[in-house]
Design brief:
single chain, about 475 residues, 16 helices, about 15% strand, alpha/beta, 8-stranded mixed sheet
Length: about 475
């Protein structure tokens, strides 16, 4: 067993999925690491949908300025190393193992006073501490950090957060509240005193919560539609052409290789976040640099085409708001003859509402359980699907595995049809792995560097130093 395999096993012992509503363990762990998260400024991103896309877009924009950017995202689709990147590259396997060994020694010290394993450092807290320590070691000039869940009690909420970003808020995790306003109260917990708050489009109740929190923190508030906006949008082949505004400045002819109105909105939020972080330096950023940065963005698992003949798209949409955005994007940007849906979701998600959101663009449905312990039982999802599509003439079939569901869906698809695999990030990741295995795809995505600065920016000579963006 390699050191990397041993590191994965040691991390896995922490048990993914366990969350505790406090910052005690991550605060203690970071203190033992000499608070690495305080050694660099950060852009902290929360919200219900769009967090990962905004993080990747903001990363690309700042990297294009020759800043050393550390990027922390969650969850991963195929490889846990996707969560930790610096200078546009995934953490090397050797560096990953080094960080696990370091953090494990200190995590055991944090665990020691607690006999109950339920009070020990969690999987996510462990990974978060690894990321912060690695960013300080590299070192980076700025970290772009995605919240895992919520905000106030999320392990990432020990960062400095000079810029806090809140993408569109809607209902998702029951633990955060049952109304958008309640969820906003949790997510607005990332707003730091004296920071700049950048927010996407929100409903009135959410805006009220954000206004109160921003005022209490003395934060400057940049709002979508007022301080920044998508001024124009035109669908194109493989993406869309945008005109974005930040303040009084308008940048046109931006090609974004991502589908959907929601991705145009995410691009505007990311550009505003980058401008907020740069301050006066934003005025000297060339328009062509912005065009180049956003034109090179890659968004794995976000209505991503992973297969051809027939075309196979994956999306990690796992709540009704995200599913509605996917359906809209397919109708406006992809416009297939018909869509064969390969669907599966987790137990804490509403299969009926997800399927209702997707229904307007679906002509055939294949249901399978995602490859996850928390998968919704197959019979429950099939029952929901048959209720949603009753009387429509749309067939609903069950498959014994996700792999079988994809086989069935691709076999049904004819010329001009697409297969859409969605309902969970587990679905998107597993289908991506089928078409674009990790060993290939981590080397196939577009590099951030233009080639000239590669030696200057690489913090490692490891041949596995992969390029994720």
């Amino acid at each position: 067993m390699t050191r990397y395999d041993q590191a994965l096993a040691r991390l896995g012992e922490r048990g993914p999925g366990r969350m505790l509503p406090d910052l005690d363990r991550i605060t203690a762990l970071c203190a033992l690491l000499a608070d690495p998260q305080d050694t660099y400024p950060s852009i902290h991103v929360t919200g219900t949908n769009g967090k990962g896309s905004v993080v990747r877009m903001a990363t690309r924009l700042l990297h294009e300025l020759d800043l050393g950017v550390g990027t922390y995202t969650s969850p991963h689709l195929q490889d846990v190393r996707e969560r930790l990147a610096a200078y546009g590259h995934l953490i090397p396997r050797d560096a990953f193992a080094d960080q696990v060994e370091l953090v494990d020694r200190l995590a055991r010290l944090v665990d020691e006073p607690h006999e109950d394993r339920a009070d020990h450092v969690t999987y996510f807290e462990f990974l978060t501490a690894m990321a912060f320590a690695w960013f300080a070691e590299v070192p980076v000039d700025v970290a772009v950090v995605e919240v895992g869940m919520g905000g106030r009690w999320d392990a990432t909420n020990v960062v400095r957060g000079e810029v806090g970003v809140v993408t569109t808020i809607d209902r998702d995790h029951a633990e955060l509240g049952d109304t958008p306003a309640a969820i906003a109260r949790e997510k607005s917990g990332i707003i730091k005193p004296g920071s700049i708050l950048v927010t996407g489009d929100q409903d009135a109740a959410v805006m009220s919560v954000l206004a109160q929190t921003a005022q209490a923190a003395g934060a400057e508030w940049w709002r979508a539609g007022e301080h920044f906006a998508v001024e124009d949008q035109q669908a194109g082949v493989g993406g869309q052409r945008l005109e974005l505004r930040v303040g009084e400045r308008v940048i046109d002819d931006i090609f974004l290789p991502a589908l959907g109105d929601h991705q145009a909105d995410n691009a505007a939020v990311a550009l505003a976040a980058a401008a907020a972080f740069l301050g006066e330096a934003w005025d000297s950023v060339d328009d062509d640099l912005v065009r180049s940065a956003l034109g090179g963005v890659r968004l794995p698992g976000r209505l991503e085409k992973v297969g051809s003949d027939p075309s196979v798209f994956i999306d990690g949409a796992h709540n009704p708001h995200g599913a509605l955005a996917v359906a809209d994007a397919i109708g406006r940007f992809v416009r297939p003859r018909s869509t064969i849906l390969a669907f599966g979701c987790l137990r804490d998600k509403p299969p009926r509402q997800l399927l209702e959101a997707l229904a307007p663009v679906v002509q055939h449905v294949v249901i399978a359980e995602p490859p996850a312990e928390r998968a919704t039982p197959l019979d429950e999802m099939v029952a929901s699907a048959r209720e949603v599509f009753a009387g429509t003439g749309i067939a609903v079939e069950a498959a014994s595995s996700l792999d079988d569901a994809v086989e069935l869906a691709t076999g049904i698809a004819g010329p001009g049809d697409i297969v859409l695999a969605t309902g969970s990030l587990y679905v998107a990741g597993a289908v991506r792995d089928r078409y674009l295995p990790v060993d290939e795809t981590l080397h196939m995505v577009a590099p951030l560097d233009d080639g000239d600065d590669e030696e200057e920016h690489e913090p490692s000579d490891d041949p596995e130093f992969d390029e994720p963006f």
